[in-house]
Amino acid sequence: MKWGMVLAGASAEIVPVSLEIGRFLFSPGRKFHGFLVEARAERGVFRRMLEVAAKHNARLRLAHFQSFKRKTILVFFDCTECDVEPQELMKEISRSRNIISIKPIESKIEGFIIGTATKHLTISGVRSAAVSLPVFRGLIQGVHERLGSGGAVFLYYMGVEAGREASKLAREMALDLGILDSLRILRDITLPLYGSTGWGFPEVVEYHDKPLLMRIRIYDSLECEVGRGARQSYSHLARGFIAGCIEELFGVKVSVTEVKCIAKNDPYCEFTVKPA
User: What is the dihedral of CA 209, 215, 216, 220, to 10 degrees?
Assistant: First the structure.
């Protein structure tokens, strides 16, 4: 099979550092306190918070930050060695002229705090949910164990519909960015978004347009992490996701086959894509 284009991979750029997205802290014996801050989109707001915290020996342990017309900052401090009460810390932070509001988040159990002051998790403004590996393992293994071979089909078509919806969102973003090329949308928006949400790190490594042929890799696939030791291809959800993405963006029905899988001790999961 002759491929028309070999694409430079992104795998070498992956930094092996985890990013904590949970809105909670757990450390027995520590005294945590949090604040949800709304502020004007001016410089120095976060720095002022850190200066006040350092002054009173409050250690920043977790921060979520977004800034558009206003800044929303969710912060958790370890106040175990703090020399003032959390209420006084909050008052001092609120004296910054750019602070619009500040809401305390109290720890109901010493050593544990959770950010219930915020409503939904969102991705690009769309409500989303985070799933830990143990919970995801229960979902995926449960489908395989209870439905047998039918579970693989079920997961595949779940993936197809998820891929379609993800690509619709990516196309909307691409139009706003002036991008119309389907390969660029897939390679530079849809698949990186998939990676940024924790499912694995995908890349298009080979591409041909007439007929449409692709080779796609996923490094560190969450789905196949669950299936390690299965000694067979395990990427049914991801395989369907790839199919759904390509069918939505390119308007072509495709067949996606997993030819390598970390569940079989391969270094990555690899998929070939061709017209159905």
Answer: -170
